[in-house]
Design brief:
Formyl_transf_N_sf, binds 5-O-phosphono-beta-D-ribofuranosylamine, alpha/beta, GART_AS, EC 2.1.2.2
Length: 201
């Protein structure tokens, strides 16, 4: 399966996918990495792995709609089977999502604590268990059909950073496992129910 990965930051999820894809039996390969900004570690990781990159900065387009079309065209040029939004900080337009099956990770157990501050909100709420969610992106914020989830216990002495780091470790393993299974076995999305396997796609 051909993967295009979109990043805006450190790209540790991207790195986990690049590492997994080094084994041909994994069944997927990162054919391109896209970003909405320059100078980020995610792009350096792609360069180091010899993967082509592209950047589409919203400010370089006359309107958000032009950017929406540009990012779709840039991604489409690589003919992906799957797009992975890995810490990508822009919402993708409905046309983009209709064209590309797009997965995203969220550092909380959806539908709890959507948005930019999953680990902080979980700590503030005082939950004892939080985690990470892999989901199919839809037009909401962290609302799409759930592909996989992994629980992470909140420690008494956790702060936002320590909790987020532990979530990210679990999140990367979940992402690598699920993307590999999807690449090898397919995925079917029926309403809110997601099934991996049975040659679904
Ligand atoms: C991850 O925690 C992801 O869930 C969130 O942003 C973080 C991205 O980290 N959306 P990285 O850029 O992959 O290191």
């Amino acid at each position: 399966a051909r993967l295009v990965v979109l990043v805006s930051g450190s790209g540790t999820n991207l790195q986990a996918l690049l590492d997994a894809c080094a084994d041909p039996s994994y069944g997927a390969r990162v054919v391109a990495v896209g970003a909405d900004r320059d100078g980020i570690e995610g792009l350096v990781r792609a360069d180091r792995a010899g993967v082509p990159t592209f950047v589409a900065r919203v400010d370089d387009y006359t309107s958000r709609e032009h950017w929406d079309r540009a990012i779709a065209d840039k991604v489409g040029a690589f003919e992906p089977d799957l797009v992975v939004s890995a810490g990508f900080m822009k919402l993708l337009a409905p046309d983009f999502l209709a064209r590309f099956l797009t997965l995203n990770t969220h550092p909380a157990l959806c539908p709890a604590f959507p948005g930019m501050h999953g680990p902080r909100d979980a700590l503030e709420h005082g939950v004892k268990v939080t985690g990470a969610t892999l989901f199919v992106v839809d037009d909401g914020v962290d609302t799409g059909p759930i592909v996989a989830q992994v629980p992470v216990e909140v420690a008494e002495d956790d702060d936002v950073t320590s909790l987020h780091e532990r979530i990210k470790t679990a999140e990367r393993a979940m992402l690598v496992d699920s993307v590999g299974r999807i690449a090898r076995e397919g995925i079917a999305v029926e309403g809110r129910r997601v099934r991996i396997g049975a040659g679904a796609r």
